[in-house]
Write a structure and sequence with these properties.
With about 210 residues, the chain is of the alpha/beta class. About 30% of the residues lie in helices and about 25% in strands. It is built from eight helices and twelve strands. Strands 4, 5, 6, 7, 8, 11 and 12 form a seven-stranded mixed β-sheet that branches. It has a five-stranded mixed β-sheet with strand order 1-10-2-3-9, sandwiched between helices. A hairpin with a 2-residue loop joins strand 11 and strand 12. Helix 1 crosses helix 6. The longest helix is centred in the N-terminal third of the chain and has 12 residues. It starts with 11 loop residues before the first strand and ends with a helix.
């Protein structure tokens, strides 16, 4: 399959304001790919129910198809529509969402199995960034993986990020992100917290409920 490359001069760049959010949400809902700021790094995303769009993100990032991508949700209530949040997980969610914590949950939305190549689990996060949340308010869910080539460092500088990646549709510029790390990823089994990737939050901070 021949992939048509989209050069920098063909990519729409908007500010993280009302007009920019509306335009980005329209493009995403039409199957487009967006890069946007989060509370940790710049992310690249699309409609998680659109299999072709998800596949394009893998191509842009040169990401191994076996490495699953997380989903960003607007709120705890929205996240609960696709992932099961039990009583123990609820306490963690109440403390750390919105924030830099990704939680692997039991998948309850069968429609996402095919589009995201999932089995029975899904990684979900509610980001603590006004721009991202405004975008999620219009889209409900977004694939939310870091906007970088797999194996390379993620970007916090919008100008650098904009220049380094190709073939996406719109860039939402939210300025430089002042973050010390990527999100921490956890999985909870039998009320035990397992750290999959330590990032912004340490296990000690999470356990200090």
């Amino acid at each position: 399959m021949v992939i048509k490359q989209k050069r920098i001069d063909e990519i729409l760049k908007v500010n993280c304001d009302k007009e920019g959010i509306v335009k980005a949400s329209q493009i995403i809902n039409q199957g487009g790919i967006a890069i946007f700021p989060t509370d940790t790094v710049y992310g690249i995303g699309c409609d998680p129910y659109n299999k072709k769009s998800v596949e394009k993100i893998y191509e842009i990032k040169f990401r191994d198809i076996t490495k699953l991508v997380p989903v960003l949700a607007y709120s705890k209530e929205t996240a609960a529509k696709i992932g099961h949040i039990d009583e123990f997980t609820e306490k963690i969610v109440e403390k750390f969402w919105p924030g830099p914590l990704t939680i692997i949950l039991k998948l309850i939305d069968e429609n996402l199995k095919k589009s995201l190549n999932l089995k029975n689990k899904i990684a979900i996060r509610v980001p603590n960034h006004k721009c991202t949340l405004e975008l999620l308010k219009k889209c409900n869910f977004l694939v939310g993986t870091s906007a970088n080539i797999s194996g390379c460092s993620p970007y916090t500088d919008p100008d650098e990020c904009f220049k380094k990646l190709q073939n996406y549709d719109i860039f939402v510029d939210g300025g430089i992100i002042t973050s010390k790390a990527v999100s921490t990823i956890i999985e909870i089994e039998n009320r035990e917290i397992k750290i999959i990737r330590e990032g912004y939050l340490t296990k000690e901070e999470i356990l200090r409920l």
